[in-house]
Amino acid sequence: MPDARDHGSLSPRDREILKDVILTYILNAEPVSSRSVAKHNFGLSAATIRNVMADLEEWGYLMQPHTSAGRVPTAAAYHLFIQSMMEARSVPAKERRYIQDNLQGVTADADHLLGTASHLLSELSSQVGVVVSPAIGETVLKAVDFVPIAGRKILCVVVSSTGFIDNKVIETEEEIPREELVRISNYLTENFAGQTLRDIRERLVRMMVEEKAQMDRMLARTIELAQAGLASDGPQGVMVDGTSMLLAKPELADVQRVRRMFDAFADKARLVRILNRCIQGGGVRVLIGEDSELTSELEFSVVATPYGVGERPLGTLGIVGPSRMDYETIIPLVHFLGETLSRALADTFSGDSDRRPERR
Fold first, then answer.
1. Comparing C-alpha atoms, which of 169, 149, 148, 173 is closest to residue 223?
2. Where in the chain is the domain with CATH 3.30.390.60?
3. Which helix (H) or strand (E) holds 97?
4. What is the predicted pLDDT for the residue at 351?
5. Rounded CA gap, 265 and 276, in Å?
6. Which pLDDT belongs to residue 260?
7. Which pLDDT belongs to residue 333?
8. Of 41, 180, 222, 286, which is least surrounded by CB within 10 A?
9. Which fold has domain 93-134+236-349?
10. What is the rounded distance in angstroms from the CA atom of residue 349 to the CA atom of residue 159?
11. Taking the domain 137-229, which CATH number applies?
12. Measured distance CA(57)–CA(64) in Å, rounded
């Protein structure tokens, strides 16, 4: 396909016809003919419009899927539409209230809020909603608790400064009394709260080297437990909601494409990697076609934005679906949900400095 022509050189007539093709295709999912465009009162003949559409195809904005069919937009056309043709919209008041009622003013932990956000993204867009949870190593510690389970097995409960809770069962070389586990939990919380798990582990490694000769028994056990319980190299989680909604899309009528779609969503590591590209720079980013291996492979788009607390991004949320999506509705929806989730995380856990894991 030829490189898209500099959009600044498109005439107003070129842009209007291209916009009409894009909007018609988004609505109907059928290749758009010149006769169909001529019905929209451009005051031009179908032949003239056909010539313009041929030019737009040559410039890389339209393509013809079949020789006898109309034309469909390319990724370049969608990007141009988003950059300079799209009507500026806001999320309708009813949907804003619905999102706020579900995310703000409710008693919920951070993981529940992320799950709710992914469901809202899918429900309100009829696409796939995805939310990437914070990277484990960048989790800022608020409190940690080591709880004996049986014998040498211990449950490590880590609460982050934004309320995310991580539970992990670890096994020690010898059984540790409950009283000593409480002292170790308090020591780590008092001395390391406010630092990331990655920084804590690095500091503990230095302590092992610097204080090895005079290390007492409790400190040795503290480092052993923290090294195992505060591991920062685990994979990021991703919540995916609404894949079944795509089965009704005309684009997914092909069984092989459906299989590729489910395989793509099953590859969580790749999904996280692609979505994390959208965390840099803030704002909403749109990946279409060749912008990523996922969107290229499935002819999908990703509309995503970071969420976080204050100036610190925690993860990414967004919508994934066929490139023929209603960007005028979906982009403001993703933006609003990102902002609302960020406020919900801040509101739910700000000022909650005494929050500690429950003793078990």
1. 173
2. 137-229
3. helix 93-103
4. 45
5. 15
6. 87
7. 97
8. 41
9. Beta-Lactamase (3.30.450)
10. 11
11. 3.30.390.60
12. 8
